[in-house]
Design brief:
Layout: H1 2-25, E1 74-83, H2 91-107, H3 113-120, H4 136-152, H5 159-163, E2 167-171, H6 175-192, E3 202-203, H7 205-208, H8 215-222, H9 229-235, H10 238-251, H11 260-277, H12 289-306, H13 312-316, H14 319-338, E4 345-350, H15 352-361, H16 386-389, E5 395-403, E6 406-413, E7 416-417, H17 430-436, H18 438-441, H19 446-450
Parallel strand pairs: 1-4, 2-3, 2-4
Antiparallel strand pairs: 1-5, 5-6, 6-7
Helix pairs in contact: 2-11, 4-6, 9-12
């Protein structure tokens, strides 16, 4: 008996030390290494820029934000829809980055110290076979997120629910998503000192990559050259030309060689070096804040017109995920009333392209003025900012509570509660949320919305 207690005590001490090491692992996120333009990296930004307190303690949790709506409330279900963690660039972007690096090495006549550093010391280490794969930082993103959510919602994300398979895991088939969900599971195992046990996940692209299944979206947006007209117009705008001119001057390279794609490749080099390696690389010295704001807006324009409010089918393509969410919440309400909740937690891992259409369908971050190539200066205060909405490991969390006056639903984006659009109260009654979305709940049929009518093939809305 003494031996067993001694071993147990030793294992607990070792596990506690492991978690402390996790906390100290964030020490290398020194604020001095953060580029001045890090808040403008869009979908290629770190999660820590959205929640800066994590820079000092990666496992920090604001307990006041996870308190129940009132003392009489009890959390009965949680659904988390999460973007994969930090990844390598895609092959397409690696090719662009290589071309820009080659241009600098062979053509630049600039004399800045940071430019000499790029030419003499920096090596092009990105290879095309990396192609969007999850990096170790991306695994940490999900390990740490799992630990924080378990700390925030300990009655739902619990060791008992985990080991009794009352936590369900669903993922996109993409390797970066499968690897992310496995890292999330590993984070829970480390937190609870579980060893030598593997947990499975369901691959479901109909839910997590619905955009690949929506024929109308594919035809009218994804394969339609005019769908992103506003992005193309902005690439030839005065704002973009000013960035091109400034960079051509810095590098002492002919302006004709500094295309918008080359400017963006340099911006990617800065953002990926930081997101993957936590390095404030010499590439970042190429950009001033105003340049970064222009490039962030270009990225936001793309996401707005391809995944957000720009075209109606962008939002409607997420109907299947919307209905899946509310079916699960309805089932929880029924199970709780008449028996035991079978699925305490659902963790679904997908892409920025998964989260943005669903958020848009539900009315979040809908600016009064549409984002266009012509209104960059008027959009500085826009709410549709992907840097803040969908960084790596971005997460939408829906928590259902049983309270004296009925069920209540809380929504958190990136671990911060926000109100549902059109419902001006926190943690509204679940029936209020259902009433608010009644048109979508009684409609928004994925098959009908995504059907490609033959008559519209040539005369599409786009």
């Amino acid at each position: 008996m003494r031996l067993t207690r001694g071993l147990l005590k030793r294992n607990l001490v070792l596990s506690a030390l492991g978690i402390i090491m996790f906390r100290f692992s964030s020490a290398y996120f020194q604020k001095s290494t953060i580029p001045a333009i890090a808040n403008y990296f869009g979908t290629k930004g770190r999660y820590e820029e959205v929640n800066p307190y994590l820079i000092d303690d990666i496992l920090s949790v604001n307990k006041s934000l996870s308190k129940p709506p009132s003392p009489d409330c009890r959390a009965i279900h949680l659904t988390a829809i999460i973007r994969h963690g930090t990844r390598y660039p895609t092959t397409k972007n690696i090719k662009r980055m290589k071309r820009f690096y080659s241009l600098i090495v062979n053509e630049s006549k600039g004399t800045y110290a940071w430019l000499r550093d790029i030419k003499n010391n920096w090596e092009m280490w990105y290879t095309e076979d990396m192609d969007g794969k999850l990096v170790e930082k991306g695994r940490d993103d999900h390990r740490h997120l799992a630990m924080r959510l378990a700390t925030s919602f300990p009655t739902l994300i619990s060791v008992d629910n985990f080991q009794s398979n009352r936590i369900k895991f669903i993922t996109s088939s993409k390797h970066r998503c499968v690897d992310s969900v496995e890292a999330f599971q590993e984070g829970l195992q480390r937190l609870w000192h579980i060893q030598d046990k593997r947990y499975s996940q369901e691959i479901n692209d109909s839910l997590m990559r619905f955009f690949d299944k929506c024929k109308k979206f594919i035809e009218n947006v994804d394969n339609n050259k005019t769908a992103l007209l506003e992005v193309d117009l902005f690439k030839s705008s005065d704002e973009m030309k000013n960035v091109q001119r400034r960079i051509a001057e810095l590098l002492q390279i002919p302006l004709s060689d500094i295309t918008p794609d080359m400017v963006e490749a340099a911006f990617f080099l800065c953002s990926y070096e930081f997101a993957i390696k936590t390095v404030n690389s010499p590439w970042c010295n190429m950009f001033e804040k105003t340049d970064a704001q222009v490039l962030e807006y270009k990225n936001d324009l793309k996401q707005y017109w391809k995944r957000g409010y720009g075209h109606d089918i962008n939002r409607k393509s997420s109907c299947s995920l919307f209905h899946d969410l509310f079916r699960r919440l309805d089932q929880t309400a029924y199970d709780y009333r008449f028996g035991q909740v079978a699925e305490a937690v659902t963790v679904q891992v997908g892409h920025a392209e998964t989260l943005l259409p669903l958020l848009s369908l539900m009315g979040f971050f809908h600016d009064e003025m549409p984002l266009t190539a012509a209104n960059f200066h008027a959009q500085h205060g826009r709410t549709f900012r992907t840097s803040q909405i969908v960084p790596y490991a971005a997460n939408l969390v829906f928590v259902l509570y049983d309270c004296n006056e009925g069920l209540r639903l809380r929504f958190l984006l990136n671990e911060k509660p926000i109100n549902f659009p059109g419902i001006n109260q926190p943690d509204p009654l679940y029936r209020t949320v259902r009433d608010h979305y009644s048109d979508l709940l009684h409609g928004c049929d994925f098959d009908k919305e995504c059907e490609l009518r033959k008559a519209n093939r040539r005369n599409s809305e786009l």
